[in-house]
Amino acid sequence: MSHALSEGFWPRRAACTLACVLRIAHELVEAMVAHARADHPDEACGLIAGPEGTGAPKRHIPMINAARSATFYEFDSEEWKQVYDQMWDNDEEVVVAYHSHTHTEAYPSRSDAGIASQLGLPGAHYVLVTTKDPDIAEVRSFRIADEVITEEPIEVTGAPEAVQSYKFAHTPDSTVYDCS
Amino acid sequence: MSVEVRVPTILRTHTGGKKLVSGEGDTLAKLFDSLDSEHAGLKGRIVTDEGTLHRFVNVYINDEDVRFIGGLDAALADGDQVTILPAVAGGM
C-alpha cells in the first residue's frame, strides 16, 4: 500500500538538479486526468514530452498499460519504442512520466520508486493521479532518484476560473523548497 | 562490422554524455562486452551477474524487443541499430 511509505521511511532531502516545481499548462493536466478516468479501474500511464534541454512539458502521449491491471502498470515495449523513435527524431525528451492509482493516494509506491531508481528517467517529473474519488481526482508531482522521493509543487499555467475536476495536493512536510 | 547503439539518458554517465555510441559483435552479448571496454559500467546496468537481461531494461534490435528473438544470444548484422530503454513500470 502506498500510504505505508509515509514520512520518516524515506530520507527527507534529495538533490534537485532541475527547478523543484512542475510548471504545466492546465490542458495537459486535464488530459492526464481524462486518461486516468477513461482507464479506471485499471491504472493509466503516459508521458508528456518537451524539447530536449528545456524541461518544458508540451506534448501529451497517452500510453497503453501492457499490464492492464488495477494495481500495476508497464509501458508496452513495442509502443514505447515507437514513441521513443518519434521523440528522438523530434529532439524531445520525457518531461513528465505519469500514472494513476485507482484505489490509493497519489503517492509513489515502493515498486514505483524502486523501478524508477534502478533504471529510470532522470530529470522527469513523476506525476501521480488518483481516481479513487469518483468526482475529484488528485494530482501530485515527485522527483525520484536513488529511491528517494521528493515531492514538488505543481504550478498550472493558463488555468480557467471554472470549477476543476481535479485538485493538487502536497504534504508540506515532505516538500523540499530550499533546493537550488 | 559496426552496430550503432542509442543510449538512454540514465546511462549516458557511462558514455561521457553521448547518446549514440557504436560497438562490435555478432550477438548482443558480444556487443555489450565490446561496449564495456570503452564505456565502463554500461554492461552491468543492462546485464545481470547471472548473464541475463535486467528485468526493467528494454533492448531492441531495430524495432524488435530482444526478449522475443533470443535475448542476449540474438544475432546482429552490420548496420543494425540497437536501442536501450528503461522499462517504465510500477504499481500500488
UniProtKB/TrEMBL annotation, chain B:
InterPro entries: Beta-grasp_dom_sf, Mopterin_synth/thiamin_S_b, Sulfur_Carrier/Prot_Modifier, ThiS/MoaD-like. This is Molybdopterin synthase sulfur carrier subunit.
